Input
Amino acid sequence: MASQLFALCFGAHQPLPLARFWSEVLGRELTDDPRDGITLPPADDIGFRLRFVPSQDRKVGQNRMHFDLTSTSPEDQRQTVATALRLGAQHIDVGQRPEEGHVVLADPEGNEFCVIPPGNDFLAGCGFVGALACDGTQEVGYFWSEALEWPLVWDQDQETAIQSPRGGTKITWGGPPLMPKTGRDRLHFDLAPPADGDQQAEVDRLLSLGATRIDAGQADAGWVAMADPDGNEFCVLARR
Output
């Protein structure tokens, strides 16, 4: 069995206020767990949690990951945007064209996200968090498909996407050209080894797929810092 996508982790200057923002936008309960910290558990049994951890790293450039939030109607899209703005989001320009119809915002710590108009066939049935859209190569899409054992649901013109066999949020990679990597990743995956495996065995398996070990100052924290073939950081946690 493969790793479980345990969480998408946000490095935040103020974890609790940022978690409250996303709790309100996504309609998820906020928990402060002694082991996992400030967390938004998934809304159902096919999603993944969001974790918010302290970080003093300055945001430099655009994140390599962002949420695409879906809408059921034009009014629903407007309402999502209005709610996010009321909670502290801002409109931003990342080169989007007016005819594309999606609204690009940044949360209170500058993390980008999009609110997609209704009628998007690719995100149909994926839920409110329709996609985690990533900057990345076809190779990295293949890597994560094998790492998580999630099937490819799109593989065309160097763009790839994967989705859990149970459905839910898609993870997409847009292909080249890639944005330059600037500093530490503010968003990264936390993986949990399979229930019948151990951390070292899973690290070895991910290395065989093309990952590398990195030094993220973890020392004896109990988790292993790694990077995928595009250099995106992720962590392998101790067995849950």
